[in-house]
Fold this protein.
Amino acid sequence: MGLLKIKVTTRQQKLLCAVLADRVWRAVDVKEGIESQTGITVIEQRLYADGEELPNRERLCSLFSETQDNVSLTLVRRPQEQAHWLSRVMEYGLQLRLAPEHIRDDRDVVMAAVRRNWKAIEHASQRLRADREVVLLAAKPDVRAFEFADDSLWSDRIFMLNAVQDDGTFLKRASAELAEDREVVLAAVHQNWRALEFASRELRGDREILFASVQQGGWEPMMYATPEARDSLRADKEVILAAVDK
């Protein structure tokens, strides 16, 4: 793939160093090259190209076109306190509980902490426990992280879709509006038919949602169906066969 000549400057356009990089390098490899020349540690560095920060694990070949031989990057140095806490939580996520309040409200630090240990979400600020991306990242290895989500997120449609796909019964936390959202409820009952209990009355009479529930739990989910739907589906051959098959 060839080599890429990288010029690294400050925001004031002061030249810090130049790095000759292989295009298969990741951004973090470039940071290591910068550290070897400047002494600025990897954890202190934030690298930007055209105003966009480079993700550590992204390969240079996916960030820059093959026609580019020379690239200019801007290095922004993190505050020492932030870098210190990043280092601590990257080693042990629950160090976040010892951090001062303003650090527990630092998105970079909290994201690093929950990547290391999902339980760190408990110690994040309320603002960040209301941050969809932060909570979803924490919940990726363990759905129990959802329990620490701020109440406001249960009205967030994208958040709810993610939550109920991991555990359908989280539908019980949904706002009234989302309990009436057909896509959200369908995703929930596909994951766990018991979520049907928490759907709106209208959707507890919806044939497609009831059919999906029956496919999961046999006839038992029908205890949550509206009486009208339950009576109607007793004569629905497809639903009855699905229930018996289950």
Q: What stands out?
A: The chain is about 45% helix and 10% strand.
